[in-house]
Amino acid sequence: MTVSPSPGAPAVVSPIETDALIIGAGPVGLFQVFELGLQDIRAHVVDTLPHVGGQCAELYADKPIYDIPGVPVCTGRELVERLQQQIAPFGANFHLGQEVRSLERAADGRFDVATSTGTRFVARTVFVAGGVGSFQPKALRLPGIERFAGRQLFYRVADAAAFAGQHLVVAGGGDSALDWAIHFASTDQARPARVTLLHRRDEFRALPATLRRLAELREAGAVEVLIGQPTGFETDGERLARLVLMRPDGSSTTLALDTLLVFHGLSPKLGPIADWGLELDHKLVTVNPATFETSTPGVFAVGDICHYPGKRKLILCGFHEATLAAFAAVPYVDPERRALLQYTTSSPQLHRLLGVETPSQD
């Protein structure tokens, strides 16, 4: 029930009630949706990144993966796309671009969960599938420049139209930097007055099609590419006015700008998970390898974030962990129901959940 606030008071947002809350939308988190779905348990998923995929999307989207069973080779991006197709029948709800800040046991035995954006959940079970923690953008290492964060310095694009008419500098040499530089140089709406791509060397890591498009825009003068390493900055009053750069030949120059977008990659941080009262072993969550339940009953951990004897940080191991965790979650969701082992090849119930027809027995 939504409670209407009194005049002048902040809105009171009702929590989202769910049988399962999955923290992390990487490959293992996505497969957790599937395995829970086979147990007729629907889930909500939270991730700090603005899109699904976790490490696969951010760190090796275009690199080949060779050890997914039955798939001789696929890229990280392709694996994420296939997992999204696989979980489509279960209609999971995704809450992206927000971090789970708190997890507490409620009086009725369920879990009260709150995120950085104010989204609240009441969940019967929680699955921590956050890889090695939440991924945070790597900050630009220039002492004092963080005071411009959120005003002229950004690590993610929340509103592309906000950069219209400005001299926009995009720093980085990977997919994210090139994709955004190309986007801003190509758009007809709310276009920056000038786009400069800044990187420490004239070599970039991206898809061949992306590199070709960048070359076209450079040739047309729509994107300026500047090679240099930021070593300092200059201000005009309270505004960031210029970056001080060291060029490859050792010389120094300055680059005027209005706004700076930095895409220097992501780094994993355990973050608030450390404060949830879960038993940890060297910043990893300790689990029972028979159920993948943590020291807190009803909270499970799967994927790279969990630790047990013999643990291997492989995607295929995470899929196994998600399977056993889903079976173990059933009594928390429905104490009267047994978690029966069924096969997707022959079970009419699983076919119904998957939305497929049961094969004829003739």
Radius of gyration: 24 Å
The SSE order reads: EHEHEEHEEEEEEEHEHEEEEEEEEEEHH
- What structural class results from the helix and strand content? alpha/beta
**General form:** elongated
> Can you give the mean pLDDT?
89
Strand tally: 22
- Helical content (DSSP H or I, runs of 4+): 10-25%
Q: For the terminal residues, how far apart are their CA atoms?
A: 50 Å
Q: Describe the biggest sheet?
A: 7 strands, mixed
Number of helices: 7
Regions with little confidence, pLDDT below 50 for 5+ residues: 1-12
3D structure, described in words:
The chain is an alpha/beta fold and 362 residues long. The N and C termini lie far apart (50 Å). The model is unreliable at 1-12 (pLDDT under 50). It has helices spanning 27-38, 54-58, 76-87, 175-186, 208-220, 315-333, 348-354, and strands at 16-23, 43-47, 64-65, 74-75, 93-96, 100-105, 111-115, 120-128, 134-137, 153-154, 167-171, 194-199, 224-227, 229-236, 239-246, 252-256, 259-262, 266-269, 280-281, 284-286, 299-301, 306-307.
